[in-house]
Every structure is written in C-alpha cells, then in structure tokens.
Specification:
Helix content: 25-40%
Strand content: 15-25%
Radius of gyration: 28 Å
Oligomer: single chain
Shape: globular
Distance between the termini: 71 Å
Largest sheet: 7 strands, mixed
Number of strands: 28
Number of helices: 22
Strand order of the largest sheet: 3-5-1-12-9-10-11
C-alpha cells in the first residue's frame, strides 16, 4: 500500500476517520454478517425476580426456519465459567467483593428483567423472532427489590445468601488501621463553626449508544479457535474476559472490532449473549449472528451511576474547609461486573478533594445487589459523582453561611505553591494552576455582571440562576500501555495500538503523534487496532487514558525506531553511528542522507541476509502515573415559574487537559461530554418500579437530550503540561460529563427560592413542584 493509497493529501479535509463514514462505507456490527450465519434471538425474563419452573421449547422448534433452541441445560456440560466477576480489591477489614455466578442463560432463577433465558437459532431473523414468541417459560415470581437504599434494610428480599443484607462490597478510605484518620476528622468537625450536610441522588442512566450491541461468532475446529466480532473499547480486555467465561486459554479466542457507534464504558465487557453465540457456533458448525434491538439494549446493556450520597462539610468561621465526610450506597444491579465497585469507591477517592485544599476527608461506600440490570462504568465512572457531591455541598454551605459561592471556592482552592499536592488518599496532583483557571472562567462567563442579567430576567417574568461546577478527575487507570510501529514497505508506517475507538478520532490523533515524532507526513501513517491477533494488547479506551497512555506509548516507540534507525543508517551511509543525525524524516551524515523509509527497507533486507537481528519494526511501551485534568464550568439558566420550563442561556467551559494534541477533537469531546452531562442533569433517568419492571424502557420514556437542548458553549483550554507522561497530556473525554451536572443543578437551585429541594433530573415538572413547595 502506498501513501497515496492511504489518503490523498490534496483531497483530505478533517479527520482520517471521516471520509468512509460520510460515504456510508463504515463497517459496524450489523454491516458484516458472515455467509451462512444462523440468526440468534433471545428469550428474556419478563420478571425482576423469579424461579424458573420449566421451559417448553417444542413449539419454537416447530417453527419453519428454526434450527435449534438452547437453554442453560444445553450449555451445562461445557462447564463455562461466570460471565463477569469483580476485580479483586480489598474492602473493609480486607474483605474482597463477592461475585455471584452469572450464566450465559439463566438456569434456576432470573435476577432482572431482560436476563437471557433461552436462545433461538434460525435461518432468518423473522423465524428467530417467531421462535422466541413460541418458547413457553413457567415462572414463579418472587418479591424483588430495585432501590439500593431499600435493599440494605432489614426484611428486604435477599438476592444472594453469600451477600447478607445484599451488600456485595464494603469499602472505606483512606486506610485507617489505628483509627487516627477518623479521630482527626472527628476533631475537625468538632472544631468547625459550620457543618453543612446534604443528601444527594445520582440517578441510574442508560448508556444509549447510537449503535446497539451486535456480535458474530465463528469456530474453527482444526485450530479449536473461537472468533468473536463485536463492538469493544479494546479487544485485548474483552478477549481475556471471553476466554475466562469459556474456560479456555486466551490463545483460542480471537476478537475483532471494526467501527463502533458509541461505547461510553458500556462496550468494554463480556456479555451473556457473546458466550451463548460462541457456544452455538461450535455446537452447530456455522457462524452465528446477533444484533440487539433498542428495547433489548435497555434491559441488557450495563447501565451507569445509580448511587446515593450523604455529604458533610466542616468549615471554620472564615469559610475555610476543615473536613469532608462522604457516605454512599451504590447499586450494582443483579450481578457484579468487572469494576462496577470502583465507580462507588476508588474513583470517588481518586478525585477528592478535587481542586480544594481539604486536610481531612473520608469516604465510606457500600455496593449493593438489586433486581436490576447490572451497572458498570459509564462516561466518567465515579468522577462525575465525586465532583457533583462536592460542588453541591459547597453551594449549600455558601447559602447557609451567607458567602458568595464563587468567593467560598476562591478561599479554598489549592494554591500553585502547593503543587505537587498529595491528597489524603495518596494521589499526587503533579501540575495545575487552579486559582488562575477559576478566575479566567469567572471572567469569561461575566460572573460579575450576573446580577444585572438576573434583574432583567425578573422584569421579563423569568427566574435566572448561575452555577459553578469545578472539577478534577483522575485519568489513566492501568499505568502501562504498548504500541508497535511497523514498516510494510511502500512509504507507509503502520502503528498498532490496543485502544479501540468509538468516535474519538484515534486514527487522526495517533497518526499525528507518530508523524511528529518521526518527522513524516500524517498521510503516511496508518493507525491499526481492533484485532487481538494482529495488534498489540492494551488496556483499552477507558478512563480518559488514550491520549496520555496510547499516545505516550507511540511516542516512546517512535524514539526507539529512530535509535534503531541510526544504527542501520550508519551502515547504509558508511559512517559511525554517533555521526548520524535524524531530522524531518531523514538520517543524515554530512552531505549524505537516507529517508526513514529507505533505512527501513534496508534494515529489512539486512535481516534477510543475517547481517542484523532486527528490522525497524519496533514494539515499545510506556509506564505513567495518572494525570489530573481539571477545570471550571459555569452555567446560566432561565426558568419560567409558571411551567418550570428551563433554558440554558449561557454555558462556559474552561479546562486544563495538559498539552492539546488536536484542538478540534478536544473541543468536540468536551461538547459531547457536556451534552451527556446535561442529559443527566435535566432529563435522563432509568426508573424501575418496586417489582423490577423497567418503566423507562424506550426513548418515549427515557429522555436523552435533543440538539435543541444543548446550548452554545464558550470553550477555552488553559493547558499546563502534565509532568508524568511523555506527551504532557491529561485526559479530556470525561470532563464534560463531570462538570456539567453540578454547574447546571447549582444554577437551577440558585434560580429557585431559598430552601428549594431538587434532585436530578431537573425536569420542568420537578422544577415546578420545587417552586410550588417553596412558595
């Protein structure tokens, strides 16, 4: 492949990803159905909690086109392992999380609406759907519990005997073996002039990715190899999960991901459907394809958030923060998914005390099983929760003690002189200027002029409010990542990475990183990911880590390529290695030079001749501590008091994501994150009734924001380079979802009468009721 075949520089305008998508040439899950594939459809539980008395598959098997109907009994002889389990971290008293066994098809009990009970395989979608309708399951309904607060009460239905009180994991931080931390915190509260307490709800959300989950499965008997083609955020992680569930060595599992229509944390995991169709592919010797409907997605995809927090803030007479106490209950759903507990535990403590200098902080969390769809990471995954609980209690404190919310924050920001700043939880903020960024945001939002705008709104019969949402988040997750740079010939560089893109622009950003380091045109670089056999293993595109970790790995690998290239260039140019310089894609010695591609070709030839051991193809890695992106968003709203209707009239976003690799993409990430954060703040909620029925199971009831709901944004980047990774970047993908909810809710509460009570989502009805109750 030549460079011109990759992309024509004269016609390219924008991201490398855009051209095929705009031409309709994308390869999403349902675009590629293997020839001769059986179509799978699933019988799903209509009950929140029930025993399975019997399953009659005979009527379904009689449907024309139905090839088979499988239940848990058909899979049992293969001794598959649990679909998901908790990552083992120590909890309170060192106790690990309890992970109940989760089967591909439910055997004796169903634990939530939507859990797969049987799988119908047919030669057409219509036949498979009719087969599903014909399967008769006899259930014995059981009393269900869907609210985590109710699940821990005495007398609540018990889901798992091994989890008394439905508690799957208890956790506290920081570590306090001798009680000194708790004692110091208690003294801080006892000495406080003001103690402010607030109870908060962080409601359950649906990921609602544009493309529902889809998967194809094949099996090669001669190689004993399973192949799963599905949407992921990184094939290596899903490969390991699938191999574990199948009870086979990972070498026998091949995972392929092509285009992915949105993920947001939800597509980083193994699901029951994947194991069921892989089993069927082996059992029947034919490919099997499944594509979720939107209705299925609502009751089968991992959901997000769903936690309840009690927050207490201690302040002295001058409004300085003395201590923070946080107690939370997080809803795991019916089963434990990989890092669901991190959302309610380490990701909370990893962010606190955000940008504020708070000497004493303690977080206590309980992770609880309920009869709902399992939860897991959803864009932000604990980071929005941490910022929301702190920003909301700060506003409550400002109102209680009579200090302007901006001034109260100003008094407590960590000063630049304290950077690097180590929190009580042991995390070190390596860089940042929080006061300067904060003041810039206030100026950009014209905070000082708000009183005049509020007065004008009142004349027009509207209520106007302004809200601040400062944030700091821990980004990076697993501290190591790998990349490989290869030279296939024809003037092209292949860069293999392990992070899977789902709209972030990886091909554009990573090509630019490699091109800058190698001194070549981005059009000569082809970024490759999504094949567990071809590409390098990686942790995946999660936790706002791709730019810093994958980008850093590419940079380090490019440096290694240049170092190897100098040795080869010295042979080619007949010089000592120390004489060789590299600049602008060329190796030079005095008046002699050779391009990177010429040296790469020569190296490949020398390897064939046995002169050198390695070509310029190079694999490298990076190890880096977390980064701490931070910023301040300011929202301004107007409310119609007669109806509760809300308009977001101004929105300012100022952030520090370190060095900006591509300003267009970073700004777009921020816009998308704010849109999702706005959805949580104003409209979205996944609601179950007491019997376990999802009553917001379609877009008729679950209100994702429309384009008209998202306001114009004033965005600014105040970059301070991160000191812990090669590119100096910090995560940016989750900043919007982290900052928007507190900024918006604080603005709404500011517009309402003093003492009004409001939880997310702040729908017009809820705003109207809050106004009515406060009047």
């Amino acid at each position: 492949m030549t460079a011109s075949a990759v992309l024509n520089p004269s016609t390219w305008r924008g991201r490398f990803e855009d051209a095929p998508l705009l031409r309709g040439a994308g390869r999403f899950g349902d675009d590629v159905i293997p020839a001769g594939a059986l179509i799978a459809q699933f019988v799903r539980s209509p009950h929140g909690f029930a025993r399975i008395r019997s399953i009659d598959t005979a009527p379904a098997k009689a449907v024309s086109g139905v090839v088979a109907v499988l239940t848990a009994a058909d899979l049992a002889p293969h001794h598959y392992h649990s679909i998901s389990h908790a990552h083992p971290i120590p909890g309170r008293d060192g106790k690990p999380p309890f992970s109940p066994r989760r089967q591909a098809l439910a055997e004796s009990r169903v634990m939530h609406v939507g859990e797969p009970v049987a799988m119908v395989l047919a030669t057409s979608l219509a036949a498979a759907q009719e087969g599903v309708e014909r399967v008769a399951v006899d259930y014995e309904p059981l009393a269900a519990v869907t609210d985590a607060r109710e699940a821990v009460k005495p007398g609540a239905p018990q889901l798992w005997p091994e989890a008394p009180g439905n508690i799957g994991f208890e956790w506290s931080a920081p570590s306090d073996p001798d009680g000194r931390v708790s004692s110091a915190l208690e003294r801080a509260f006892a000495a406080a002039a003001h103690v402010v307490r607030i109870d908060l709800v962080n409601q359950r959300l649906v990921a609602a990715s544009l493309e529902p989950r889809s998967a194809s499965a094949t099996y090669e008997p001669s190689a004993k190899r399973f192949t799963l083609r599905c949407g992921t955020q990184g094939v290596a992680s899903v490969r390991m999960q699938v191999a574990s569930a199948l009870n086979v060595d990972p070498q026998y599992v091949h995972v392929i991901t092509e285009d992915v229509g949105g993920a947001f944390g939800m597509k980083g995991w193994c699901y029951p459907e994947y194991i069921a169709i892989l089993h069927a592919a082996r059992a029947f010797g034919r490919p099997v394809h499944w594509n979720a409907t939107r209705a299925e997605a609502f009751v089968s995809d991992n959901q997000g958030r769903d936690s309840f927090w009690t927050v207490e803030l201690a302040l002295n007479r001058r409004g300085r923060f003395l201590g923070l106490r946080v107690n939370g209950i997080g809803n795991l759903g019916a089963y434990f998914t990989g890092v669901a507990h991190f959302v309610f535990t380490t990701h909370i403590s990893g962010c606190l005390p955000t940008v504020y200098d708070i000497p004493y902080v303690q977080v206590n969390s309980r992770c609880v099983f309920t009869n709902t769809v399992p939860t897991g990471p959803y864009r932000g995954a604990g980071r929005p929760e941490a910022s929301y609980l702190l920003e909301r209690v700060i506003d409550a404190a400002a109102h209680q003690i009579g200090i302007d919310p901006a001034e109260l924050r100003r008094r407590n920001l960590i000063s630049p002189g304290k950077i690097p700043y180590t929190t009580v939880f042991g995390n070190t903020y390596d860089s940042g200027d929080f006061p300067a960024l904060f003041e810039h945001a206030l100026q950009k939002a014209d905070y000082a002029g708000f009183a005049a705008r509020r007065k004008m709104a009142k004349k027009n019969g509207k209520l106007r409010g302004i809200g601040i949402g400062c944030y700091l988040e821990i980004a990076g997750a697993f501290p190591e990542e790998t990349a490989r740079i290869a030279f296939p010939g024809g003037g092209v560089v292949h860069v293999h990475v392990g992070a899977g893109a789902s709209g972030q622009g990886h091909k554009t950003v990573f090509a630019a990183v490699a091109a800058r380091k190698l001194g070549i045109a981005p059009e000569c670089v082809l970024v490759m990911s999504g094949d567990s056999e071809r590409d390098v293993p990686g942790f995946g595109a999660v936790a706002s880590r791709s730019a810093m970790m994958v980008g850093g790995a590419i940079a380090k690998t490019a440096e290694a390529v240049i170092a190897k290239g100098k040795r080869i260039a010295a042979l080619l140019l007949q010089a000592d290695e120390g004489q060789v310089e590299y600049r602008d894609g060329k190796f030079r010695v005095e008046n002699r030079e050779a391009t990177l591609f010429e040296v790469a070709d020569h190296a490949a030839e020398l390897v064939k001749q046995g002169v050198v051991a390695e070509s310029l193809d190079t694999r490298g890695s990076v190890k880096a501590a977390p980064s701490f992106p931070n910023g301040c968003h300011i929202a301004e709203v107007e409310i119609d008091p007669a109806t509760g209707a809300l308009a977001v009239v101004n929105y300012t976003a100022v952030g520090d994501c370190g060095n900006v690799l591509d300003e267009t993409i970073v700004t777009a990430q921020l816009h998308g994150g704010v849109a999702q954060g706005l959805g949580q703040a104003l409209s979205e909620a996944s609601v179950y009734d007491s019997g376990g029925q999802l009553i917001t199971g379609s877009f008729m009831d679950y209100a994702v924001p429309r384009a008209r709901d998202v306001p114009p944004m004033s965005v600014d980047h105040r970059a301070i380079a991160c000191r812990t990774n090669p590119l100096g970047v910090k995560g940016t993908g989750e900043a919007g979802t982290t900052a928007a909810p507190p900024a918006l809710i604080n603005a709404i509460v500011d517009a309402l009468p003093r003492g009004a009570r409001l939880d997310m989502p702040a729908t017009p009805e809820r705003i109207w009721r809050a106004l009515t109750a406060a009047s």
